[in-house]
Write a structure and sequence with these properties.
The chain is an alpha/beta fold. Helices cover 41% and strands 19% of the residues. The strands form two sheets. It has a seven-stranded mixed sheet, sandwiched between helices.
């Protein structure tokens, strides 16, 4: 059997070392790293993956798409998908900025303690960022009523509308003003902070408004905490009526999903793994 080759297509000038280390730890024999990849430049790289091996050997080549700009990575992913034809394709994992694996891990953590589905209310703070949008999308896809919170009313409304269209029947609303946000926090069964590193989105008085919360997850690993009182290492810590997770507390699940996904794209050349597929992988772990 030929060596497994993972082709890392990164939209940043320097490919992510984090993603490279995970790829090696996940068992890729050879890692080919390309930075500064765009939709205009990616096609020859994909052709190189498609046409150098044939038959069953093609399954030993796979593609990882990453980068800190999620929109740019999604555009590259769309071009990669369009380049394939018939059975001539390789497995693909899309996880820019770790957004998809992190969001999947957060939803899995919440579902351990709350029935995430119709009747569940969730509020995602920093919900217009890459991870926040994925968390909202995955929760809404399971039937939860989701509120996206942001300082920008325009961005929150845009994100809510986009997710609502993508997930048929999803109940996604936006909150930006103080009154709207306070109401969303007070009603939420699941509260997730997915803002920028080192930015507090919910201080102690704000957290006291989360009277219905059964699960509180802060995905910020850099002090200060995104939600007051949550520590990065918290993992299913009971705090009053809520079960609390920090970034490192969901990190173990994220890493398991990431490694399992890499194994999957080598096992199935037809696999094209985005947020929903990664959530399904995590739920089976």
């Amino acid at each position: 059997m030929p060596k497994t080759i993972l082709i890392q297509l990164d939209c940043d000038p320097q490919p992510s070392t984090f993603d490279a280390v995970v790829a090696v730890d996940a068992g890729a024999d050879v890692l080919l790293r390309h930075g500064g990849v765009t939709p205009a430049t990616v096609e020859p790289l994909v052709h190189g993956a498609m046409f150098t091996r044939g038959g069953a050997d093609l399954a030993s080549t796979a593609i990882f798409i990453g980068g800190s700009d999620v929109a740019a990575a999604e555009a590259v992913a769309a071009k990669v998908r369009a380049t394939f034809f018939g059975p001539v394709r390789v497995g693909v994992l899309v996880d820019p900025n770790g957004a998809n694996t992190t969001a999947s891990a957060a939803v899995i953590a919440a579902a351990r303690h709350v029935a995430v589905g119709p009747g569940c209310r969730a509020c995602v703070l920093g919900g217009t960022g890459p991870v926040g949008q994925r968390v909202a999308r995955l929760l809404a896809g399971k039937g939860a009523r989701v509120t996206i919170a942001s300082r920008s009313a325009e961005r929150a409304a845009e994100a809510a509308g986009r997710i609502g269209k993508a997930a048929s029947g999803a109940a996604v609303t936006a909150a930006s003003g103080a009154v709207e946000l306070a109401a969303a926090i007070a009603a939420a069964d699941v509260l997730v902070a997915a803002g920028a590193a080192g930015v507090t989105l919910l201080d102690e008085p704000g957290r006291r408004r989360a009277v219905a919360a059964r699960v509180i997850i802060d995905l910020n690993a850099v002090p200060p905490a995104g939600i007051a009182g949550v520590v990065a290492t918290d993992k299913a810590r009971q705090d009053g009526q809520a079960t609390v997770y920090g970034a490192l507390g969901v990190g173990g699940t994220k890493m398991k999903i990431h490694k399992a996904a890499i194994a999957r794209i080598f096992a199935d050349p037809a696999a094209f793994l985005d947020a929903e597929e990664l959530l399904a992988i995590g739920e089976r772990l």
